[in-house]
Design brief:
7-stranded mixed beta sheet
């Protein structure tokens, strides 16, 4: 039988499970060893909106190239944006550099969640994770995995915004003074490997005795969230100008969506219908097809045009080998793959 009102025994049971089943991840230190705040911070920023398998090779490439926060702070913007390509949400990459430079100027990371929240790109969850993992502060780190675990443990049926406040308060009350970082990672691991969004494996869960949703017989019912609103669809063009085995690339403006990233020439992206747009130069342009990509707030459908040209388009840009690593955002890598075949190399 579940014991919703008494979670006092939950932390030691969870930590005992973690000691046996902790995931081995590139950014983690072995249990009992001090964690490097730079590696913790870098991993947490990469993992925002990104899966562990996708983020891992990027993390390893970054830490080989920039092993300390001071190294990253000294890197050129263009090089970091190029290395970030494929992780998406490029505002994170810009904030990553801003944060690294501020930390380097300070002489190190702040050691409290409150101090960490003052840095660019660090919100409540990330500050709690870094403070608990790297500095041993007795604070909670509540991400989507933890939301799901505690929504089920407590069988929260209230409005999701209110439910999140209730479960966050419960998690904060349970963080142990000793091993707060291990407690945070244990909850992340439990949500990622056992209390999964679908088909949770309750038979091996160390917290089954506390779980009201399990007692009800339908843990997948939780968390109870509002229905998702359909994303609007935007339409646009991408232009692939080819010459002697190379394609013409441009640099997007530093601010805004995909700011500072290498890209194919592209017109405005608008809702409703494919907008009129002029190609970057006169040529025999061929409609190669359409690629689709989903951003945070909208879906995009790009019509891809291809032409062989004898000169460069007007304006700033560069010729690049389409099969070499180009630092292209995923949407433009898709367009290029459609136009020339194959895929640009990734790190």
């Amino acid at each position: 039988m579940s014991r919703r009102s008494d979670f006092r025994e939950l932390p030691p049971k969870l930590l005992a499970w973690f000691d046996r089943h902790a995931r081995v991840l590139p950014w983690r230190a072995p249990i009992g060893q001090k964690r490097d705040p730079y590696r913790v911070w870098l991993a947490e920023i990469m993992l925002q909106q990104t899966t562990v398998p996708h983020a891992a090779p990027y993390f390893e490439a970054f830490t080989r190239r920039w092993p300390r926060v001071e190294d990253l702070a000294a890197a050129a913007d263009e090089e970091v944006m190029r290395a970030w390509a494929g992780l998406g949400y490029y505002a994170r990459a810009r904030n990553l550099l801003k944060c690294a430079r501020e930390v380097a100027a300070r002489g190190g990371f702040p050691e409290t969640a409150a101090g960490l929240r003052e840095l660019p790109g660090i919100g409540p969850y990330t500050s709690g994770a870094i403070a608990a993992l790297a500095f041993g502060e007795q604070v909670a780190a509540v991400d989507g995995n933890v939301d799901r675990v505690f929504a089920r443990l407590m069988a929260l049926k209230s409005d999701w915004a209110e439910a999140k406040k209730e479960l966050a308060a419960k998690v904060a009350s349970l963080v142990p003074a000793k091993r707060p970082g291990d407690f945070a990672e244990a909850l992340m691991d439990l949500g990622a490997t056992v209390c999964t969004p679908t088909a949770p494996n309750c038979m091996i869960c160390p917290l089954t005795e506390f779980c009201v949703a399990r007692a009800e017989g339908n843990p997948e019912r939780y968390p109870i969230k509002p229905a998702k609103v359909a994303k609007p669809i935007r339409y646009g063009h991408a232009w692939v100008a080819r010459r002697k085995g190379q394609v013409w690339m441009v640099r997007r403006p530093p601010e805004g969506l995909l700011g500072g990233m290498l890209a194919l020439p592209s017109g405005d992206w608008r809702e409703g219908a494919l907008p009129e747009a002029a190609p970057p130069l006169k040529a025999e342009w061929v409609d190669t097809g359409e690629v689709r990509h989903v951003f945070t707030h909208f879906s995009l459908r790009l019509t891809v045009w291809t032409a062989d040209v004898s000169r460069a388009p007007a304006g700033n840009g560069e010729w690049a080998d389409p099969m070499e690593e180009t630092g292209l955002p995923t949407v433009f890598a898709k367009a290029l793959a459609l136009a020339v075949g194959g895929k640009p190399k990734r790190r």
